[in-house]
Design a protein that fits this description.
With 453 residues, the protein is an all-alpha fold. The chain has 17 helices and 2 strands. A hairpin with a 2-residue loop joins strand 1 (344-345) and strand 2. The chain is globular and about 70 Å long.
Length: 453
């Protein structure tokens, strides 16, 4: 038809992120299926390759095959690259590559990144990308150096030690939980340098790049004599830091109290406190094991379930509903209880669209958990506690398990794979795709009162 001009249809951010994630997962699965990725005579099944690739890209850490013994050096390198891509983020990696080839990030990409980084903090998209990349590489390199020095007694070969140190540093900072040791970090539980380094990396990785950038700018400003050039801590940074301290300290205190004469019996007091703190930190997002989780009491398992459900900070490598969501819901509940109109945090009123997003994220997340829990109970027939632990670990991109992962059937593994992908991009897709800016309507309907509670 004359005058007709085809215009490409714009893909919403949520589906766009999901398509990018699926593409990288399938590419990673294809590389893991290559004979060079696995030992001779031990090929990887297609379902297991997709599962492992998704777990690495979604920085989860659930495994159906031992990473150290079930994959060659090439296969472990593929897993490491997938973890790094997933940790930095599909959007950031794509934008960086486009920038390197001189194509730029585009207006939509720049707008979305400014939304994530609160615009005022880093003005330019290239500054955001530069900070994310440099920040990640510096911290991972520092962590690898510390681990390399600490592993001198256990790994004699320098090359093997370097590979081990780099792998665990990247896995820790990206909160992936993959380990080349078959027992995760159980054999290293008595080494304070290894456990301390891994703990520091996973905690910093769980704070999120926006908060880290704000803290770095704030510290630089505090060091300057000119007070007019100082940067303030944004509300998001304050909320994330406060909630992280509460969850880390509270979780560690509860685990120590519950397991002092239980799973921690016979250990030195400092070792007990160290294990409690590490499990509190890793339960929120990382997935490393420093002990046999099947020895925990039901009360301790409940504590870890709550930590996995909440997760860490938005804009980080962590999953869960995020600490900011919990803080917003608490602020709104407090405002309702006190008869106020708007929720407040740190003497700042929260926009109603932010509160609605928090409710949407929490509601959607809980609904998906309930549905997946029911399906997995039906397909696997496993215990109640083991199944809900597996579901929350997968959708929270945590990577901890009570032993169910390796026993999953193929349908169960596919469902857990889907949960890991939804957990990685689900809240972000909800925020961008389901909750839209409020629009004023010319027609208003009569109000109705409905009994609640």
């Amino acid at each position: 038809m004359r005058g007709f001009r085809w215009r490409p249809r714009r893909v919403p951010p949520g589906p766009l992120f999901l398509l990018g994630l699926v593409a990288i997962v399938l590419l990673g699965a294809g590389l893991l299926l290559l004979p060079a990725s696995t030992p001779a005579g031990a090929p990887l099944a297609v379902v297991d390759a997709v599962f492992t690739s998704a777990s690495a890209v979604c920085v989860t850490g659930l495994t159906v095959r031992d990473t150290g013994g079930g994959f060659t050096t090439f296969g472990q390198t593929v897993i490491l690259l997938l973890i790094q891509i997933g940790g930095i983020g599909v959007m950031t990696v794509s934008a960086t590559l486009a920038m390197l080839f001189g194509r730029g990030v585009g207006l939509r990409g720049a707008s979305m990144m400014r939304d994530v980084f609160e615009g005022d903090l880093l003005k330019e998209s290239r500054g955001i990308l530069r900070f994310v990349t440099v920040h990640t590489l510096i911290l991972e390199a520092a962590g690898a150096a510390l681990l390399f020095a600490a592993l001198g007694d256990s790994v004699a070969d320098p090359l093997a030690r370097a590979r081990c140190a780099v792998f665990h540093a990247v896995s820790a900072f990206c909160n992936a939980g993959f380990s080349t040791w078959s027992d995760s970090l159980v054999s290293q539980a008595g080494d304070p340098v290894v456990i301390g380094t891994v703990s520091a990396l996973l905690i910093i990785g769980g704070l999120g790049f926006p908060v880290t950038a704000n803290v770095v700018a704030w510290l630089k400003g505090r060091a300057q004599a000119d007070r007019t050039r100082r940067c303030r801590l944004y509300v998001q940074a304050r909320v994330v830091l406060l909630m992280s301290v509460i969850l880390l300290a509270g979780g560690a205190a509860l685990l120590a109290a519950l397991e002092w004469n239980g799973a921690f019996a016979g250990l030195a007091p400092d070792t007990k406190l160290g294990l409690a703190f590490f499990q509190s930190a890793t339960a929120r997002t990382a997935g490393f094991n420093s002990m046999d989780l099947t020895q925990l009491s039901p009360a301790s398992v409940l504590v870890m379930l709550v930590l996995m459900y909440i997760g860490a900070a938005p804009g980080s490598t962590a999953g869960g509903i995020k600490v900011t969501t919990v803080a917003i819901l608490w602020a709104d509940a407090r405002a309702i209880a006190l008869g106020g109109s708007n929720a407040r945090l740190f003497d700042r009123e929260l926009n109603q669209i932010v509160v609605r997003r928090a409710f949407m994220v929490a509601t959607t997340y809980t609904t998906v958990v309930a549905l997946a829990f029911g399906v997995l109970l039906a397909t696997e027939g496993s215990g109640f506690v083991e199944t809900i632990f597996e579901v929350l670990s997968a959708i929270g991109t945590v990577g901890l398990t009570l032993g169910l992962t390796t026993e999953l059937s193929d349908p169960g593994r596919l469902l857990v794979t889907l949960l890991m992908m939804l957990g990685r991009l689900g809240p972000l897709a909800v925020a961008y795709g389901l909750v839209r800016p409020a629009r004023e309507h010319g027609v208003h309907y009569p109000e109705a009162t409905i009994l609640v509670g």
